[in-house]
Amino acid sequence: QVSMWMKNTYISLDMIFITGDGRILRIAEKTEPFSDRLIPSGGPVRAVLEVIAGTARKDGLAPGDRVTGSIFGARH
User: How many Cβ atoms from other residues are within 10 Å of residue 51's Cβ?
Assistant: First the structure.
């Protein structure tokens, strides 16, 4: 499990927490800039993808969706 914060971040972000098999576990949308409030992953994750706030919703991302990449193992 991991926790993130926005203490030194100037813009609002969506944080996409991704498990070891590439599944989106949780999306923390529109996080608050400069906040030191912890944003937990909600479970074990391998990566956190940070994108501009609103991107996850605009692109239709949701928990359970899968992402691909070499750190998530081969998927064919």
Answer: 15
Nearest to 10 by CA among 39, 32, 36: 32
pLDDT tens digits, 8-28: 999 999 999 999 999 999 999
CA atoms within 13 A on the CB side of 22: 11
Those residues whose C-beta lies under 8 Å from the C-beta of residue 14, and which sit 6 or more positions away, are 27, 28, 29, 30, 31, 50, 51, 52, 53, 54, 55, 56, 57
Token couple for 65 = 């969706």
How far apart CA 45 and CA 23 sit, in angstroms, is 9
pTM above 0.90, yes or no: yes
